Amino acid sequence: MKIMKNIIKLLVIIPLFTSCEDMFSPALENNRNMDAMYNEPAYAQGILGYAYAMLPYQSKSETDIATDDAVTNDMKSSYVNMATGSWAANNDPMSQWQSRRAAIQYLNLFIDNADKVAWAKDANVHTMYCDRLKGEAYGLRALNMYYLLMAHGGWTADGKLLGIPNITTAENIDSFFNVPRNTFQECVDQIFDDIAKAIELLPLDYNDIKDADIPAKYKSIGVTNAGDYNRVNGTHIRGRITARIAEAIQSQVALLAASPAYNEGTTVEWADAANYAAIVLNRINGVAGLDPTGGTWYMNKSEIQSLGSGAVPKEILWRGDKDNSTEDYAMGLSQEKSNYPPSLYGSGRINPTQNLVDAFPMANGYPISDASNSGYSSDNPYANRDPRLSNYIIYNGTKYGTSNTEIITGTYSLDDKPNIDGLNNENTSTRTGYYLRKLLRDDCNPNPSYNTAQFHYPVRIRFTEIFLAYAEAANEAWGPTNSGNQNYSAYDVIKAIRARAGVGTSNGDAYLESIKNDQVKMRELIRNERRLELCFENRRFWDLRRWKANINETAQGMQIDKQDNGTLKYTRINVENRSYKDYMYYGPVPYEEILKWSNLQQNQGW
User: Fold this and answer.
1) 290 close to 497: Cβ distance less than 8 angstroms
2) Extended beta strands in 320-434, E state
């Protein structure tokens, strides 16, 4: 709670969506109280802007290196330390406690005072501004609570499933800070309540409309000019939270609460999670709305290039700003600098594991473990595989980059040239025999002589994630081929996703057909499809824990040696052990908070 007191004392409003010169006006040394916001909408929006500046999304792939999907050659990484035995309540790189609760304090300040702000002289425009901005605040508060539950919700030693202290009004210096954690269910209820308010107040999307399309609720108060509506909710607002985005967050929360790690302490059922996901998907015509190129959203170059400000392609529900800057902190080239193989002037940081490579089926849809049907050969392991393997991972012999360089990850070299890309050859070389390809663009060039950047954008929510959430929940609620009161089943979704990827297209996806009436095998397949489709998007860490799946699978790699006869020998190797305890399915409350506040209960084991 110390950060809350600092917020209350300083009340520094930082992100006003303006230039640096205008960011603090009047100057920082001027002490201003909350009354100042009532006649200064820009000042008031700065409070809301803090929550946007502190959105919980990671723009780079990071947390997968703490799972069975990847390791890193950056041995100073806090995620490496966490995964190998150093995760503690006073050493938690996954903590969301301070940043999310700080954002919620700002949002509470905004919600408490928004009705008093003079948003516009025209009464109707004032009402529309107040609706939209309060709707954003409710949606953002729900989002921050969701991330707090993922990071800190858990079971206590006395058998309670707790969330975090549910604070819905702005705290001040006279507030009582030593408050207990609310139950997990109470927190979920608060999220759903906030989402309902956000959906009521926000437009589905931000678009310029014509007079005839003014929403009925605003026509009823006398809004007749679409220009007034567009001033408040037009295309220039794109990028902020909408009712559609709020519905997607609701789906994510329901999936979390229905999952094995939490469902014994909540009233949320799998059918609820499926139906919440369906609300989002039905707006795009269900399975028919799946983007044919959604699996390669990060390298759909012409699509990315043509994206207007705040506009989203068919696959993306919510994204951040696109960027093609060359600075290390920007997105335009930084991921390529970090993750390209060293021969392409990268640092090879994220190394996919053999575990993940093995999860990609053959192109005919069968798992590689199905020896009689898959056609997999351990002597030629990358042949005839799921096309997503070559889209997402650089393996031995891949040609990549603007120079179409052949990447050799084995222990041998081509034409007796030094092989800096080979397994463990340098501190920037791969530790597993693989390099990252997903999220990167092959038309970037980190070579300092060129320093060529291209447009990238951070993705916050993809429609594919919601499709997979629906499939998971629908399978658990109704079985693989039943659809409850919806028009499509888990089977329908998975068949469409695999077909989009080019899996099973030659044989009618015979493997899927063989298991479509087996709920357990369908569960395994859905989880595997989620693993593949969302790899390196910071989902795996949370998924393993909400499933209560194996979190201690040793990260493996592939050593490739050239034998005297010129053939290649493939040897699986252990690369990095995982050292998690059973209680680590749930993250800790920060140790310093437990020391400060006697009413806070710690999760069991920490």
Assistant:
1) yes
2) 350-352, 393-394, 398-400, 405-407
Contact (CB, 8 A) for 154 and 604: yes
Cα distance between the two ends of the chain: 20
Sign of CA dihedral 166, 167, 173, 176: negative
The DSSP string of 111-156 is HHHGGGS---SSHHHHHHHHHHHHHHHHHHHHHHHHHHHHHH-EE-
Chain segment 461-514, per-residue pLDDT in tens = 999 999 999 999 999 999 999 999 999 999 999 999 999 999 999 999 999 999
Based on C-alpha coordinates, what's the Rg of the chain? 25
- Widest pairwise Cα distance in the chain: 85
Name the residue with tokens 């040239």.
417
Distance CA 579, CA 336 (A): 30
Q: How far apart are CA 248 and CA 254, in angstroms?
A: 10
Query: What are the residues whose beta carbons fall under 8 Å from the beta carbon of 195, sequence distance 6 or more?
Result: 138, 139, 142, 246, 247, 249, 250, 253
pLDDT digits (tens, 9 = 90+) for 8-56: 444 433 333 333 333 223 333 445 677 778 888 888 899 999 999 999 9
Residue 39 has what pLDDT? 86
β-strand partners of 573 = 557
Cross-strand bridge partners of residue 580: none
- What does the pLDDT average to over 438-459? 97
3-class state of residue 162 by DSSP: strand
Q: What is the DSSP string of 253-273?
A: HHHHHHSTTTGGG----HHHH
Helix (H, G, I), strand (E, B) or coil at 63: helix
Angle between helices 123-152 and 41-53 (to 10 degrees): 20
b/e sequence 509-521, b meaning 16+ C-beta within 10 Å: bebbeebbeebee
Taking the C-alpha atoms of residue 335 and residue 321, their distance in angstroms, rounded to an integer, is 16
Closest C-alpha to 484, from 279, 284, 191: 279
Count of positions (residues) in the chain: 606
Q: Which pLDDT does position 32 carry in this prediction?
A: 64
